[in-house]
Specification:
This protein is mainly α and 197 residues long. 83% of the residues lie in helices and 0% in strands. The radius of gyration is 19 Å and the shape is elongated.
Length: 197
């Protein structure tokens, strides 16, 4: 008798994000944002982040769906995803505005160096909020670990005055590594399944 496993929609939705593609694109967005902050074009570097996420759908259709198939979730789940994405985007834009405003105030008033260092930790903390929301939205709990890494990196940045790029670049490299590992595992499993069929 074949070993069959019945998946609920919730289980299927969680496994939907396990191919690593979202991680790779998120890591690339973080890496370019970090490099942008380092080269002092931080605001422009942050603008590129949503473009990587836009690439997710076409890349998924190109790389994942030919091997895993296409899944259409229930209308209720699709509505929750749409609402969650809209809320995440609105929160991200609002938090980004707070960071830009805080940075301008610190520069304009010549605030204490410690306040400037605290502002340097803000980008990573705000990205961590987005990572938590992504984890809640997708059910991919590893995004919560990314958020913890960003918060820890922000703390190190504030204590050692490393600048806003440090936590973004370090966590980006870790996220990309996880994504590449997951994608490699997915491609190997798909190839083994195809050969066994």
């Amino acid at each position: 008798m074949a070993n069959t496993q019945i998946l609920t929609e919730r289980d299927l939705f969680r496994s939907f994000w396990d191919d690593g593609l979202l991680d790779i694109l998120t890591g690339m967005a973080l890496l370019l944002a970090g490099v942008g902050w380092q080269s002092e074009i931080g605001a422009l570097a942050v603008v590129q982040a949503p473009l990587w996420i836009v690439l997710w759908g076409p890349l998924r259709r190109l790389v994942v769906e030919p091997r895993a198939g296409f899944v259409r979730f229930s209308l209720a789940r699709r509505k929750r995803i749409t609402r969650g994405l809209a809320a995440t985007l609105a929160l991200g834009v609002g938090l980004f505005a707070v960071v830009v405003l805080a940075a301008l105030v610190v520069r304009e008033r010549g605030a204490l160096p410690t306040l400037g260092q605290a502002v340097d930790g803000l980008p990573a903390v705000l990205v961590a909020v987005a990572a938590v929301l992504a984890g809640l939205l997708t059910g991919a709990r590893r995004f919560h670990a990314y958020a913890l890494g960003l918060v820890a990196g922000a703390a190190v940045t504030v204590v050692f005055a490393l600048g806003p790029a440090f936590p973004l670049v370090v966590v980006a490299l870790a996220v990309i590594a996880v994504g590449v590992t997951l994608l490699g595992r997915f491609l190997r499993a798909a190839r083994a399944f195809r050969e066994a069929s």
